[in-house]
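**User:**
Make up any protein.

**Assistant:**
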Amino acid sequence: MVAIQGNRRAFFHLLVNTLLVSVINYTVWFALTFYVYLQTRSVFATGVVSAVFLVFTALTGIWFGSLVDHRSKKTMMQVSAIVSTVLYAAAFAVYQLVPDGSFTDPGSLALWALIVLLMLGVIAGNIRTIALPTLVTALIAEDSRDRANGLVGTTSGTSFLVTSVISGVLVGLDGMFWVLILALGVLTVAVLHLALVPVPERPAAAETSEAGSRRVDLRGTVRVIGEVPGLSALILFSAFNNLLGGVFMALLDAYGLSLVSVQAWGLLWGVLSTGFIIGGLLIARTGLGGNPVRSLLAVNLVLWAVTLLFPMRSSVLLLAAGLYVYMLLVPYAEAAEQTILQKVVPYERQGRVFGFAQSVEQAASPLTAFLISPVAQFVFIPFMTDGAGARTIGTWFGTGADRGLALVFVLTGVVGLVATTVALRSRPYRRLSRRYADGPAVPGPAEATSTAV
């Protein structure tokens, strides 16, 4: 796009390459979840798989960030794809060699070997989610990075939309067989494609005096974050939002399925995913304005207001409208956070800071998801079915299990609104806004010497 200045050719090649790999990794992950449930009919097994995946994602973020900082970004993207390919190939061998019926037992060693191999293959792809924003810093001029980050968000949304179709079709066709064949083929193409793309990066000499260390250096990363006024508060705020977002992870499917059939719910999510794509494209066209910190908090005010409003009535139309606005605005929040980090964090530390933020923020959602499910089941649902809630507000709010879940969403929205309002008026917000506006930008392609890798 004309508005994006810098090495656009390399950037767009990286976007296409990342789209290919993301679609495959998401397809493998969703297909694995579907397959495990269809084989075992165990909700507990699929829940454990999801929980372990989130925990591993949180634990590996800091390490992956260190790898990205200490090595060529393009090389780490290639290593990520190659490691995923090897693990998928090993999983394919397990899938082909074990006897039929081995995957129906939730405690089967063969099943968990398949799960662990595929899970690690998908998690290896997270190296790309850390490397790509640092490459935006290196390839794109500072005043158009927000637009580039919008396109990165569009890529994620497209991956999610396509995946929801591909994974179900392939698993229904022949279990994990064609899923893994497709994964191995596409990843091979992605590795070959990226090998032919010159990706300019900062010379190694630019990575200053990190003592030549290739260790994770968590202490140093925390120190860098602490040296930027308000940055710790930003990461904690994002983690807090994800903590509240765990409510969606745990309860949204149950709420939606109380209103419509499973087929309609799946189709609705396919439509809702277009909001994520359109949101990213709008950012690429208009940018985020002169103060991404303010944009981030303003967007969150709207997001929590939506969370407060859509459950007020038991209506799938109100739910769909609210979720579409939510999906449309989430790319703004993500692009704003990336744009802030790309300017205020030294380039040689960006991988570790992105990885640290990913670990802290990803650890929050599963914690709430684990806690809120029993609370909703044993407190809020009875409260709104035949308890005090049904008697006091049931006449206008409604009664029943779905209204218990709706009340959880309303309260979550209230907490989110209060927290965002406090953050908007806080001293760390003002300090980070001033740091972003007045501080020197991390040099982009026009200001820094580059070398093609």
Q: What stands out?
A: The CA atoms of residues 157 and 274 lie 7 Å apart. Residues 204-212, 446-453 have pLDDT under 50 and may be disordered. The longest strand covers residues 200-201. The chain is about 80% helix and 0% strand.
